[in-house]
From TrEMBL:
Signal peptide per UniProt: 1-20
A Pfam entry, by short name: Cytochrome_P460
Gene3D superfamilies attached to this UniProt entry: Cytochrome P460 (3.50.70.20)
Name by which UniProt lists this protein: Cytochrome P460 domain-containing protein
Length: 180
């Protein structure tokens, strides 16, 4: 009732109702807290934050970035050990390898991460947890202000899972490895 009234008051009408119904299944408190632990685990392994190790960046495209780095690692979160894939996304368009290597901090746009959670987290999509961080470790948000952490883009037309489900059984574009 209250929500209906608020939407009417805001003049959202039917379009607003449709939006509310499609409210995403990610980005809540639990997902945000989990993403924070994951960020800490990455910082501890020097995969994120100041002093992060570098690899040789390679050219990429939308939506990830004009130059990319990908790291395959593992992390333990709440006692669960799982595969961790970290992608660093650099820009802007036209940025060169030398610029990225010389001043990575100046060119880093975001870190997009996949972590394989415990079996049963979301068996249907391979139990991957998704997160998109800004370089300072805070979570990026979608246009509706929802934090990009958890099952982002599940049953949706856009978003991490909507696209990564096209990558094959393991949900990874860059490797055929199972990565459990
Ligand atoms: C429109 C499609 C698309 C969307 C949306 C997308 N990705 Fe990707 N992602 C890709 C492609 C293509 C690659 C391979 C890029 C490369 O060449 O390294 C990739 C690579 C990755 C990788 C490296 C592992 C792999 O798959 O090879 C991670 C981690 C990742 N994406 C995370 C995310 C997260 C987190 C989101 C959501 C915030 C997201 N992606 C949204 C297409 C997408």
């Amino acid at each position: 009732m209250a929500i209906k009234w608020m939407m009417a008051a805001l003049g959202l009408g039917l379009a607003g109702a449709a939006l509310a119904q499609d409210a995403p299944m990610f980005g809540g408190d639990e997902d945000q807290a989990y993403a924070e632990k994951l960020w800490q685990a990455m910082v501890e392994q020097n995969l994120a934050g100041e002093g992060a190790i570098m690899s040789f960046p390679y050219p990429g495209t939308d939506p990830h970035g004009m130059m990319l780095e990908t790291f395959y690692a593992r992390a333990t979160i709440d006692g669960h050990d799982g595969a961790l894939v970290v992608k660093r996304n650099y820009g802007p368009e036209g940025v060169t390898v030398d610029q990225v290597l010389g001043m990575p901090g100046e060119h880093l746009g975001a870190l997009t991460v996949m972590f394989r959670r415990e079996a049963g987290y979301d068996a249907e999509t391979g139990d991957w947890f998704y997160a998109k961080y800004l370089p300072d470790g805070s979570l990026d948000q979608n246009p509706n202000g929802v934090a990009l952490a958890g099952l982002v883009g599940k049953n949706a037309e856009a978003g991490c899972i909507a696209c990564h489900q096209n990558a094959g059984e393991n949900y990874l574009f860059t490797t055929e490895a199972e990565m459990r």
